[in-house]
């Protein structure tokens, strides 16, 4: 079988298994199994695939057909301009979360300023590290309740040349942090507990429950974080939080009750309200 024929067969297999991006996933898994680059398809598509290579591809396709996400299979995921390693305790970063990065960058008056950023529930470190990659004089602290997530985030900082500007610690949201920051970012768990069983298998069976479960109404983490934000922000500092579909009004109320007027609610690329930005009055 040629490489191109293998790819067609892989796509059909993933499509039959209900995978929603079979063409992309087939290509990524074959590239990973065989050490190919995207350009290789142009020049090597008619080459025969040796049986041992086909067996390596088959093993990965079997996992994907069982609805394990590509990022979990290959152990990493691209986010913003970065490649990030994953661990069982980290959420797989989503493109929607880049909305927070854009929102913070657009809200900062001076991108060369030495801003201090706090990321609550940092996971892979994706939000903090993407911001540090864009803000050459910024430094930051990422907090997560999971020690495995903290270790993964620290490794991702090193992998992307940002370790000198990023610290990571275990903690429960902002508890015990005395410092005040120019920006606090967070993508907290926001799925109502009862909805978790209805999620796609890629999410339900592979993202950690602690990264998903937002309590009975999905808002537990926002209540905790909103109460802490006034003590974590400098005067004039901004908070940018990812939100779930339909949660904007409730979270606006939580932030404004805490004394943080909402300045923006920003949609993601699908038009869903995804990031809420508030500021601490000067
Ligand atoms: C939705 S994930 C977001 C991860 C990452 N920031 C991202 O956007 O991909 C939420 C994260 O919050 C962490 N978390 C859950 N409860 C926490 C708590 N009480 N204190 C600190 N972190 C918590 C989870 O371990 C998880 O890494």
TrEMBL record:
A Pfam family recorded for this sequence: MTS
The Methyltransferase small domain, residue ranges: 105-190
E.C. numbers: 2.1.1.297
Domain of life: Bacteria
Function as written in the Swiss-Prot or TrEMBL entry: Methylates the class 1 translation termination release factors RF1/PrfA and RF2/PrfB on the glutamine residue of the universally conserved GGQ motif.
PROSITE patterns: N6_MTASE (PS00092)
HAMAP family tied to this protein: RF_methyltr_PrmC (MF_02126)
Domain annotation Release factor glutamine methyltransferase N-terminal: ranges: 6-75
GO terms, biological process: methylation
Organism from which the protein derives: Azospirillum oleiclasticum
Family: Belongs to the protein N5-glutamine methyltransferase family. PrmC subfamily.
UniProt-annotated binding residues for S-adenosyl-L-methionine: 121-125, 144, 173, 187
GO molecular function: peptide chain release factor N(5)-glutamine methyltransferase activity
Database matches in InterPro entries: DNA_methylase_N6_adenine_CS, HemK-like, N5-glutamine_MTase, PrmC_N, RF_methyltr_PrmC, SAM-dependent_MTases_sf, Small_mtfrase_dom
Positions bound to substrate: 187-190
Catalysis performed (reactions): L-glutaminyl-[peptide chain release factor] + S-adenosyl-L-methionine = N(5)-methyl-L-glutaminyl-[peptide chain release factor] + S-adenosyl-L-homocysteine + H(+)
Keywords attached to this entry: Methyltransferase, S-adenosyl-L-methionine, Transferase
SUPFAM superfamilies referenced in this protein's UniProt entry, alphabetically: S-adenosyl-L-methionine-dependent methyltransferases
Name assigned to this protein: Release factor glutamine methyltransferase
């Amino acid at each position: 079988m040629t490489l191109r024929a293998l790819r067609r067969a892989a796509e059909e297999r993933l499509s039959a298994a209900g995978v929603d991006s079979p063409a992309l996933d087939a290509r990524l898994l074959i590239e990973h199994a065989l050490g190919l680059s995207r350009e290789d398809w142009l020049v090597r598509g008619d080459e025969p695939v040796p049986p041992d290579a086909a067996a390596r591809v088959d093993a990965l396709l079997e996992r994907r057909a069982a609805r394990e996400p590509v990022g979990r299979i290959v152990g990493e995921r691209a986010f913003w301009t970065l490649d990030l390693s994953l661990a069982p305790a980290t959420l797989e970063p989503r493109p929607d979360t880049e909305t927070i990065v854009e929102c913070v960058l657009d809200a900062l008056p001076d991108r060369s300023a030495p801003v201090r950023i706090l990321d609550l529930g940092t996971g892979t470190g994706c939000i903090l590290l993407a911001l540090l990659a864009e803000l050459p004089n910024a430094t930051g602290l990422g907090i997560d309740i999971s020690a495995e997530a903290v270790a993964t985030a620290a490794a991702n900082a090193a992998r992307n040349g940002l370790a000198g500007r990023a610290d990571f610690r275990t903690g429960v949201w902002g508890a015990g942090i005395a410092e005040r920051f120019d920006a606090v970012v967070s993508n907290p768990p926001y799925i109502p507990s009862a909805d978790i069983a209805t999620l796609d298998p890629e999410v339900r069976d592979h993202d950690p429950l602690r990264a998903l479960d937002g309590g009975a109404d999905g808002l537990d983490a926002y209540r905790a974080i909103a109460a802490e934000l006034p003590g974590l922000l400098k005067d004039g500092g901004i908070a940018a939080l990812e939100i779930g579909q339909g949660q904007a009004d409730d979270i606006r109320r939580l932030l404004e009750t805490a004394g943080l007027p909402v300045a923006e609610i920003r949609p993601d690329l699908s038009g869903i309200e995804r990031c809420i930005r508030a500021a601490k009055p000067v």
